[in-house]
From TrEMBL:
SUPFAM superfamilies in the cross-refs: lambda repressor-like DNA-binding domains (SSF47413)
UniProt name for this protein: Helix-turn-helix domain-containing protein
Key word Disulfide bond present: no
PANTHER family reported for this sequence: ANTITOXIN HIGA-2 (PTHR36511:SF3), MERR FAMILY BACTERIAL REGULATORY PROTEIN (PTHR36511)
InterPro entries tied to this protein: Cro/C1-type_HTH (IPR001387), HTH-type_reg/antitoxin (IPR052359), Lambda_DNA-bd_dom_sf (IPR010982)
Organism the protein comes from: Streptomyces sp. R28
Positions of the UniProt region annotated as Disordered: 46-66, 83-219, 413-433
Domain called HTH cro/C1-type: residue spans: 25-79
Keyword Transcription set for record: yes
Length: 794
């Protein structure tokens, strides 16, 4: 009989009533729960819970998870009933019947009129990251923190501790983003109050007044603030979560003092030996005028990247003993005093009207109202880190923040901690190392003895770059209807995942035996590799039409003609294809490790979390994924900007590893500023690009071997095929919902592919004929079909 009862209980549980997705999300955020916390409690993936809260994906829990989820929502509904004046949400069941939820009496916590506003929750730091510490957001954000983390300080007068909110809700709940509220709601009425008293717009809905433990009380107001001047002349600092502070500062030096002493802004370190992030102050145009700075740079100042040293504001800073970095006072200015022991005194400025937020990566962020800009940058800071400059600079700084070059050690005599003289294991250290001669770009001091105008060939120079290859269509391809492009998600991030790179200096070896596990640069002849016959698995060879495939060894897809320098992943791929290699010489790095793993994990999590909030989850079927990607930018344009910034942080950070000289006055053979950084590592950049290109080629070969289809154009991470259908589903092989092993797979995860665009074959032939370029790279224009110049960049 008990078995029958169990069966009945299971049947009832399988139809446990659930509220609509919007109500599920409201209840979770009202209690300050993150998606990760709910997922961990129910033993499901984060993306699964996100799908249950999305009205677009229409996914529903089943089995025991549904019963547990329904129980959680019932308990939360008792604590946080629907707001007065709103109809109680209708609960849904797996069957056709629906039931009205019975509201519970309001609790005292829900009726507090000055309840704090929500702020973004940080992305989880992967277990593989060394000694991770969650990114800072205002103090109430629930996150996994060490048991030794300081408990939050009691709520200070006038500065309530914010509650938790997901990334997308943080943007959408911004008072300025609430289009239904009156415009005046984004600016509170002026009243006499202490200098750093919080000011919250009246239009914000009350939130629960509970504050989860574990947040850092030093940074209770979040990582940053956007300083603006309202119509009444009051200077306000807009922080994340809708918090607004009065700013008493009358000058820029006093603004810096206020930021460090009263504003309680900043972000905890991302790694145990690291440093806390300095507070970021964003100055609007009205704030620039208030503090005596130009609203826009002159052409001369723009080219110099700074205002003149004799500017009155710079003199004010100097009189107050504040210093500027060598880059001077530009769009991303750093104002500091030399550190006293472990205490840092530094503030980062961001000036959007000076083009600090490049529109190529930040879209229209620089034109947003102060409150909305604070929300957007706050989401990025919570998921990645507080911006330290351009997305490229931030990408590089993130590497250092996750792998600090040095660490503190205890002095046995005094018991005090002091800076270690040795580098932190797994880091690049604090001193730069010279590249191998073959890795050095033209003009490097290592090459100053080369004859003038000497052009180094592949036998002298490592040239690992992304693909830019195309070929004419075959007669059979000309009979196809369409050209369909697919694009690899975060291809270079995926190339960095798990990659072993050098951490120290290179060692020169003559006639080495190739080791695919040893990072370095190898001089080897790969011209004998024939793509007409390759190995695709152990002891499994296939015959292909090699003339329709690009060479995996050169960016232009041309077959090498003799010995050339290659990074380890490229040479290893030649062996994988079934061919022997015999290096002539090499520069290898015996001190090595997976330096980029934590960097990849954090950026991957930021990307996936933001896309999930935009309705694109990681566990969607191929058809549902394509449907979810349709119009994803329009669902929340500001959150879409965060996605673009995360992707730009990946590419820009890798590009900074081989930053070239900038500005006038530099001559070939002379050092430039970037060479003084430990993170100036062209060998690491080359290894990532090499692995990314090889990963791409491997999928192309697997696809050709299985389907007989060959690419007609490749640009970086986009490949174009001539097919009869219009969608990737029309030519990507799937069997029982499963993709070709080792081939292309549709999905949002880094390394998987999405649809880039579809144009007709006739369009492609007309474009090539118009520009008299039979091998014009159509992958560059496949997205929109618009061709403005054959020399357009990526």
């Amino acid at each position: 009989m008990s078995e029958l009862f169990d069966a009945v209980d299971a049947l009832v549980a399988s139809r446990s009533p659930l509220p609509p997705p919007e109500e599920r999300k409201r209840l979770r955020t009202a209690h300050g729960l993150t998606l990760d916390e709910v997922a961990a409690a129910l033993k499901v993936r984060r993306a699964t819970v996100s799908g249950w809260e999305s009205s677009k994906t229409k996914t529903e829990p089943r089995g025991p998870e549904r019963e547990a989820y329904a129980r959680l929502l019932d308990k939360l509904a008792e604590l946080y009933p629907a707001p007065a004046g709103e109809a109680a949400p209708v609960q849904e069941t797996a069957g056709p019947e629906t039931f009205a939820a019975t509201p519970a009496p309001a609790t005292e916590a829900q009726t507090v009129p000055s309840a704090p506003a929500p702020v973004p929750a940080p992305a989880p730091v992967p277990a593989s990251a060394p000694a991770p510490v969650p990114a800072s957001v205002p103090a109430s954000v629930p996150a996994s923190v060490p048991a030794s983390a300081p408990a939050p300080a009691p709520e200070s007068a006038g500065v309530p501790e914010p509650a938790a909110l997901t990334a997308s809700e943080n943007i959408q709940s911004s008072p300025a983003a609430n289009t239904a509220a009156p415009q005046a709601a984004s600016r509170p009425a002026r009243t006499a109050r202490p200098s750093s008293t919080s000011r919250r717009p009246a239009a914000r809905k009350a939130a629960p007044a509970n504050t989860p433990a574990g947040a850092d009380p030093r940074f209770v107001n979040g990582p940053l603030a956007v300083v603006d001047v309202d119509d009444d002349g009051q200077v306000l600092a807009y922080c994340v979560g809708g918090l607004v502070l009065d700013v008493p500062a009358k000058s820029l030096p006093s603004l810096v003092d206020w930021t460090l002493k009263e504003a309680r802004l900043g972000q905890p370190k991302l790694s145990g030996p690291g440093k806390d992030a300095d507070p970021l102050i964003v100055l609007t145009e009205s704030a620039l005028e208030r503090y005596g700075l130009p609203v826009a740079l002159t052409e001369e100042e723009r080219l110099a990247g700074r205002i003149p040293e004799g500017h009155k504001v710079i003199k004010q800073l100097a009189r107050a003993d504040w210093k500027l970095t060598k880059r001077g006072f530009g769009p991303w200015a750093r104002i500091y005093r030399p550190a006293q022991g472990s205490e840092r005194a530094c503030v980062q400025l961001c000036i959007p009207s000076w083009h600090a937020l490049d529109s190529r990566h930040w879209g229209e962020a620089g034109q947003l109202p102060a409150a909305e800009l604070a929300q957007l940058l706050g989401v990025f800071a919570s998921l990645v880190m507080t911006p330290r400059g351009s997305t490229a600079v931030t990408g590089l700084e993130l590497m250092t923040a996750l792998h600090p070059p040095t660490h503190a050690v205890r002095d046995e005599a005094t018991g005090e901690f002091r800076k270690s003289e040795t580098k932190t294991p797994g880091s690049l250290g604090e001193h730069p190392v010279d590249p191998a001669p073959c890795e050095a770009p033209d003009g490097h001091p290592l090459l100053k003895d080369l004859p003038r105008f000497h052009v180094r060939g592949p036998g002298e120079k490592l040239f690992e770059e992304a693909y830019d290859w195309a070929r004419p269509l075959t007669d059979d391809e000309c009979m196809r209807r369409n050209l369909v492009g697919i694009d690899v998600n975060m291809a270079f991030a995926a190339g960095a995942n798990g990659l072993v790179v050098g951490l120290g200096e290179p060692t020169h070896v003559k006639a080495p035996v190739f080791d695919p596990k040893l990072p370095g640069s190898w001089l080897v002849d790969l011209s004998h590799v024939d793509l007409s016959r390759v190995k695709v698995a152990k002891d499994k060879w296939v015959d292909l039409d090699g003339s329709l495939l690009p060479s995996p060894f050169t960016p232009k897809g041309e077959r090498p003609e003799g010995p050339a320098w290659y990074a380890t992943p490229t040479v290893a791929y030649a062996m994988e294809l079934g061919y022997d290699v015999a290096p002539i010489e090499a520069w290898v790095r015996y001190d090595n490790g997976r330096y980029l793993d934590a960097w990849y994990n954090r950026l991957r999590d930021a990307y996936l979390a933001t896309m999930a909030d935009l309705g694109v989850d990681a566990d969607l079927s191929p058809a549902d994924f394509l449907a979810a990607m349709d119009g994803w930018r329009q669902r929340d344009p500001q959150l879409a900007i965060v996605v673009d910034a995360v992707k730009a942080t990946v590419k820009g950070g890798l590009g900074k590893l081989r930053e070239r000289p900038r500005g006038e006055g530099w001559k070939p053979g002379e050092p430039w500023r970037a060479l003084s950084r430990p993170t100036w590592r062209p060998d690491i950049r080359a290894a990532v690009i090499s692995r990314t290109r090889i990963n791409f080629h491997r999928k192309i070969v697997k696809h050709a071997a299985f389907t007989g289809q060959y690419p007609v154009a490749i640009l970086s991470d986009c490949v174009v095929y001539a097919v009869d259908g219009e969608s990737p589903l029309d030519f990507l092989p799937y069997r029982d919902g499963k993709p070709l092993p080792g081939g292309f797979k549709l999905g949002i995860n880094p390394g998987l592919v999405k649809w880039e665009g579809t144009q007709s074959v006739l369009w492609g032939e007309e474009v090539r004929e118009r520009f008299e370029a039979p091998e014009l790279n159509l992958a560059r224009y496949i997205k929109t079909g618009e061709v403005t110049n054959v020399d357009d960049g990526e």
